[in-house]
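Researcher: Here's the sequence for the chain we discussed earlier.
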Amino acid sequence: HMPIVSAYVDAEKDVQRGKGKGIHPMYRGFRFELTKKITAWPLNIFVICLLYVIVVPFAFQGMQLQVNQNVLQGIPRDAPSGKAFKAFSKLFSPGLAAPFYVLLDIDTSDRNFSLKNSLINLDDHKISDNLNLEAMNMNMNASQHGSLMASTEDIKPVINGAIRSKLVFDALVDAADRVISETDCTPEGVQTISFLNGHKITFYMANRLLRIAEVCKKSNSICRTAHEYSFLWKQNVNKDETAVTITILSPFFPLSSRSEPFIETVYNIIDELNQKQTYSEAGLKFYLTGAELDMYAEMKKTYGMFPLLLGVTACTVFLLLAIFLRSAFVPIRLALTLLIPIVGVFGLSVMVYQKGKNVDSFSNSAACANSIKYLKAS
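Model: Thanks. This is the structure I predict for it:
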C-alpha cells in the first residue's frame, strides 16, 4: 500500500500549493508569473512567432560561416611564445615562419626533344653573355673587370643540367612576375635563381656569376654578388639540376586564414602556366608546396563534406525518430525547436566574429574559429 499512500501525499501537496499554502520557491516570483502569462493562449502564438522572427535571420547568417586553422588562435595571449612571435613579426617578414615554394620540375626523358633543342651551347657565349654590371650595382673599375673576365673566360660551363635552357629561366621569371603582380608579395619576398637583389637574371648572367664565384677570392662588390648568387643557386636548385624552386615569403603569417585566398591565387597561376604549350612541350611542370598546404587541403576536404554529412545525419536521425515514434510531426518539431535555433547561434557568431567591426581585435583572421568556445557555451 506504500505507493498509493505516497501518491496521495503528493496529490495533497499539489492541492495545498493550489490553495496558496506551502508554495515552493519555484512557483514564486516575477519569472514564474511572466512564463505563465506568455505561455497561455493566445499570447503563446505571438511569442513563438516573435522568437522565430528573431532566430530565422540569424539562421540564414549561419549559412555563411567560415572556418580556418589559424594556429595563432591556439596560443594564449600572455604566453611567452605568443609574445616572441609578435616581436619576430615586427622585425622580420611573417612569411619566414612557413615559406611557400613553387617547384619547377623538368622532364629529362629521351622523349623530351623540345627541351633538348632549347639547351644552350655556352661555347658561343664565352665573352658575349652581356652581364650588365652597372644595372646590378656592381661597381668595378675597368682593370678589375677585364682581369676577372679574362680569368673566367676559359672555364667550362658551370650549368650543365636540364636547367641549361633559356626557356627554364623565362618560365621562372614568368611565374615570379605573376606571383608578385597578382598577390600581396613584394619582389623582395620572391626568391629564385632568376632574380637577385630585385634584378632579373638571365641564363647567361647566371652562368657568368657562378663561374666568377668559383675563382674570385676577393672582397669587391662583384665577387660578393657572385658568391651571394652561388648561395642562392645551391638553396634553390637540386644536385642534378633538373628542378628549381621559387621561395615565396608572404607578407602575412602563412598559417592563418589570409593564406586561403593566396593559395587559391597561386594555384590558378600554376594551372595557367602548366597549360602553356611552350612550357608543356618542353616538359616543364609547376607545383606548389609548403607547410600550410597540408592544413589547407585537410580543411578544404573536411569542411567541403561538412554540409553533406550534416544533412545526411539530420535526415537519418529524423527518419528513425519518425519510424520509432510513429509520428511524422516529430521531425518537423525537432527541426523547428532544435535545428533552427542551433544554426541561429552560429549565425550570431558570424555577425559578431566574422562580419562585426574590429574583428581583428579578436584574432588575426575574420573567421569564426576563435568563437568555438562561445558556441559551446551557447
